[in-house]
Design brief:
The chain is mainly α. The protein has helices spanning about 5-15, 20-35, 35-40, 45-55, 65-75, 95, 105-110, 115-125, 135-145, 160-180, 185-200, 205-230, 235-250, 255-270, 275-285, 290, 295-310, 315-330, 345-360, 365-375, 385-400, 405-415, 425-440, 445-460. The longest helix has 24 residues, at about 205-230.
Length: about 475
Amino acid sequence: MARERNERLAALLDEACWSRAQAASAYNRVAAETLADDVRENSKINRSHVTMWVGGTRPTGVAPVLLCQALSRRLKREVTPQEAGFTVPDSPAQGVLDWSVDPLIALKALGSGVDAKRRRFLAGGVYSAVSLALPDEEWWLAMEQPPDNFTRSGKRVGRGDVEAVQELTQTFSRIDQKRGGGHGRTAVDEYLREAVAVFLQGRFPDEATRRAMFAAAAELAYLSGWMSFDNSDHPTAQQRFNTALKLVARAGDAPLSGHIMRAMAHQALDMGLRPEALLLAEASVHGRRYTSATPRERALLGVVHARALAANKRKVEAAQALLRAEDDLSNAREGIQEPDRTFFFGEASLAHETACTLRDLGESKRAVTEFQRSVQTRGAAFRRTHAVTLGYMGASQIAQGNVEEACATWARVLDAMEDGIYSGRARGTVRDMRVLLSPYRKRGVPIVGVLDARAAAYLVRVD
């Protein structure tokens, strides 16, 4: 039976103005950059392979991914296996291969509306545990080397441009903390796509400015990921964190890479991937990511590490990590210049994360005490996290049988949510609230019925 010609692939090769031999060479370059051993051993192809693929032969394994990465780089847009006429390979190496994608391609692919939804559908659009595997040290060292063409084309980019990216990041980070990740992420993505991608391809006066711009871009991409995570858009969050790590690898900024891994670990915990979360948290406090960080950032990295240890039932180590985080935060004294990204982390945040750690260790009474300390010390600028903390505290209170206290706490969650907070995590605490109230609702407890009706009405409005 004759094979059907792959017209989609043929059209893409024509668009790229590639001969079959040129396509094979580009494929081999991408494969050589991929550090997975099983791919490296079988990486080489020649023009006859491309000819056969156009003729209808189906490439096996991860070959479609490698070819699509080569096409993406050539065409300066994302090319999916489906667009090239291939099925998506079911390969455990695919998550590793994703680290070979140029972060500039990922930035340019950022979008909104129907196009973004279509891209996510074509790419699978799911949160992947496989993609949490981090590349090895060789990859980090290779990424830190500047490509030869960095100073030869594009607009001139100086310190003022770096500061502009940093200022926008600070502004939207504060909006996120106050109003939730549902506010402003589209604007952040548009700025990444339209302005930051251009800066990254510019001409830099020196190596320090290049690294500073890549670090600033990484932090903004991380913020987009964090806002997506907070608004429960987990596939998008994972993609943004992935892009942020690639950018920070170009910058060689160890503490910032730890900060991003800490967020990835936090997300993995929320998704129930405990072993994966611990691997990420351990990576975030490894080597210079921790030792080169300032005291406040060390405390932030350390307390999420403690949570991951607790989730994996490593109680003694979790307790030790908590004590170390407390010591680190106590060393964050006036006069030490901390990165702006840690502005939110203080006593209230430490208490919140400590409470989550104790809760996961089954110590609900001590957890409630820490949640209360967090609520009492958190400022008005952090209303989103305040609502999340209250939601968790109510769950810990009802776990101890304190129904009226839990209802009073959850009423405060709804007060906060109805005052302009758009956060998927906070909405999740309201849904959890209804589930936890269900046994008491059936008993006809008046305060439970009133609160549950209010929660149900709120969810109807926002879902």
